[in-house]
Write a structure and sequence with these properties.
Layout (H helix, E strand, L loop, with lengths): L6 H8 L6 H7 L14 E2 L9 H14 L16 H16 L8 E4 L1 H13 L5 E6 L5 H6 L5 E6 L15 H13 L4 E7 L11 H13 L3 E5 L21 H7 L4 E6 L12 E5 L2 H10 L7 H11 L4 H26 L12 E5 L9 H15 L1 E2 L13 E5 L5 H19 L1
Parallel strand pairs: 1-10, 3-4, 3-5, 5-6, 6-7
Antiparallel strand pairs: 2-8, 7-8, 9-11
The structure holds pyridoxal-5'-phosphate.
Pyridoxal-5'-phosphate binds next to helix 5.
Length: 430
Amino acid sequence: MNHTLSIRGQKAVDQVLRSDFEIFFEASKDLFHPTENPDGKITLNVAENVLSWPSLKDKIEIITLTQSIPDWVAGYTSCLGNPDFLESLAGFLSRYLFKCEIPSETLGISAGATAIVEVTSWILCDRGDIAMIPAPSYPVYTMDIGNKGGVERYDIISHNDISDLNQGHPLSIKHLSKAYNEIISAGKRPRMLILTAPDNPTGTVYSISKLKEITAWCIGNEVHLVVNEIYGLSLILDNEEQLPEFISFATIMEEMKSPYLHLWYSLSKDLGISGFRVGVVHSYNNSLLKAYDNLNAPHMVSNHTQWMLGQILSDDEFLPSYIHENQKRLTHSFRIVTDKLDALSIPYVNATGSLFVWLDMSEFIQEQTPEGDHHLWMDIYNKTGVLLTPGDGFGHEGYGLFRLVYSCVPSDHLKEAMDRIETYIQSFRT
Ligand SMILES: Cc1ncc(COP(=O)(O)O)c(C=O)c1O
């Protein structure tokens, strides 16, 4: 026990953000390169998109070289975000993701979706309240809602087998009612439902009719419904390069304008700029936004970043081709993975969007326990040098399921990773 810290500070010393970070940083010192380090590690565990950075980088460099920085950038601005930036952001979201007009007064920004999740749940929930989340889901939600806000996570189990996810997300009102009743029976308050669409890690989405049903259930039960559309433009195209069916929750929000409905977004994934730290909350609940304004000072986005990105978000010549090219690159990488998995008969979820393939390697597990799960994940890494995201923390039942991020390395590195996984699987099977 270190007595220099508070009790909660001490808890934070021992509570890691992610169980795979230590290995990730170790592996990052010995990364694969086709000629310089052909036996190096290939890390496919962190949700980043590097595929379109070169074209965005050019754009940012041109702005830096040709434009003078406005004076407002050097001072303080609104804690919800600079009004000019929020205007550009509202335009971008309305045109490209939401496909419906939203006023910039419904938006607030923070340093990444991480901060957005933390501040929103702090405002909507009291300590000990429950956030229901369909499993499997983003492990870091647990820390984002829990660390400061003291909100607890309840994982809703909505399916037995990953093949149940191939026709869209199977979450139903029956699952929600069961979760709600269990939470009430335990003497707790079900306060929030968090959906991620496209989902992390499954890549599934909810049909608009399903979302409407869920919305009505949430409002009827005074449960806040938050849909995280952080992967909303990271969609997988079909063979004719057509977009899949994905309708933003913003259309329902716009129609209903209920104080129980909210949407999260971030530029981290769709624009591949997780280091710029821009997360977004969208809500018609004025009290939520007022409270957000009063609490957001420690989480604000740099004015320089807002000024720079404001120009990109309002550039309607650049954006359509950037978004489409990015989707083509994501689709290409997704297919590198899924073609190989098909050839090897490894089950996976056929994603509508996101940066992930959620795959089932349970055929190779020796023991159906958390230890067996961890052993298989490490065995794949030790024998192939390919680091997948481990299954722990996603909240699902079952073992041997891992997340593969296909957008965080160039496609030739991804091919190498899949060849190594093929060798691993074949040596196991023979
Ligand atoms: C579902 C989900 N929400 C939030 C985040 C955090 O995003 P940001 O980098 O904007 O903080 C991630 C990152 O992986 C995510 O997958």
